[in-house]
Amino acid sequence: MNTNTLEGKIQTSQQCLAALLHRTDKLPLPQEKFMVTMLEELFANLEELQSSIEELHCINEELTYGYLVWDAVLGGKDITEYKQTQQQLEAASLRKEILLKKVHHRLKNNFQVIYSLLQLQSSKLQNQQLVELCRDIQSRLKTLSILHQKFYNNQKITIIDLADYIQDLTNYLLLTYWQEASEVVLKLQIARVNIGIKTAIICGQIITELLLNSLKYAFPQKGQSEIFINLTYNRNKKVMITVGDNGVGLPQGIDFNNLTSLGLRLVNSLVKDIQGHSEVNRDHGTIFKISFTEKLFCSLP
Asked: Roughly how many angstroms between the first and final C-alpha of the chain, as a whole number?
């Protein structure tokens, strides 16, 4: 309850009423007309407050009473032509995917036929050098065959997981050259990345040549033999492949611009094909470092 003193001060237990009426604590002596005005202002302020509360309820999509009416303006457009074009593109993409899978499958089969013919021919050879030559050719064919098998089984027909490919490739080479690799420890530190088919073919051939070079020439004597393959990348889509061993190393006088070894000549040529950079370290064994930038690069978890 509010009362006025003889000095014109409001005495109340709810000080917020004075603030609501926008009055100070000093008022003139109460008069009937003045009290009516105060009550009118009070009711006006209460109506304004109630209106604000209703607006808040509408914003929160809540209603304590009454009805909430929504109005909407809708527009339409015929997208039949767009949908037909989209379906045609999807059908063309599916046909292309099926065709590429067939190509990969046929290439794999063709490589396998040639591989088997070489295997049959080498079994009849008496010259050990020719036998080794046939085995090296078979390994190069198998490098391509494994890759095309990967693409045939892969959901994405334009890129491949390079780490997975390297794992299968090295397993095959160690089994094929089991006599040379019987006491060799192979260490793999490979980051998972997706690359395009052209780059994957070249990377597979490079790793095959360097791994065969280490298996055949790095360890003339038995001992703690180790070959390692590292694959890393950076944020600029630059891929780095390192293949090395702790063997006897390459001859000091070797000229990398005028190589006689077919394998190392292939490596130099293949690095140029992907516009990459290569360097060789011969301090402790032989270490080849190859780096290149891949446009279709995509890192994997």
From this structure: 72
CATH class, range 158-301: alpha beta
Report residue 114 as tokens.
């040639």
Contacts of 243 (CB under 8 A, 6+ apart): 206, 207, 210, 211, 214, 227, 228, 229, 287, 288, 290
SS3 291: strand
Tokens of 33: 């007309």
Longest dimension (CA), the chain: 133
Task: Give residue 61's region: left, alpha or beta (phi > 0; psi -120 to 50).
Answer: left
* Token pair of 271 as six digits: 């690095």
- If we measure between CA atoms, which residue out of 239, 222, 219, 220 comes closest to residue 231? 239
What is the pLDDT tens value at each position of the chain, 301 positions in all? 444 444 445 454 445 445 545 555 444 444 555 555 655 665 565 566 556 555 545 544 544 445 544 555 556 677 788 787 888 787 777 777 677 677 767 777 887 888 888 888 888 888 888 888 888 888 888 888 888 777 777 767 678 888 899 999 999 998 888 777 788 889 999 998 888 888 888 999 999 999 998 888 888 777 778 999 999 988 778 899 999 998 888 877 676 667 677 788 889 899 999 899 999 888 888 999 999 988 765 655 5
Buried b vs exposed e over 115-134: b needs ≥16 C-beta within 10 Å? Answer: beebeeebeeeeeeeeeeeb
Residue showing tokens 């040549």? 209
Q: Domain boundaries in the chain?
A: 3-59, 76-157, 158-301
- What's 186's DSSP letter? E
- Considering only CA atoms, give the Rg of the chain: 41
